Amino acid sequence: MDDRRVLSGIIFINRNGLRWCDAPAAYGPPKTLYNRWKRWSDMGVFTRIMMGLAEQAPDNKTISIDAPTSRHIVRPAACGKKGGEDA
What we know:
Layout: H1 3-16, H2 30-42, H3 45-56
Helix pairs in contact: 1-2
């Protein structure tokens, strides 16, 4: 799976407060998204990205990632589980 697509999926999930299993299929399998997020988090990848972006900010403190213009609609039922159990 393409790293850029996975990164976009991770950002989408976090920006919209979704569960991994609610990721749109265009970003790849939810397990792939979660595994890369976990691995990259443990390696400090996101910290380095944010530090690099902060260095480019005019005040060297503030950064932001643009929110998508449309929201993904999520059904209240949990990811394929019976009885609304959490995934």
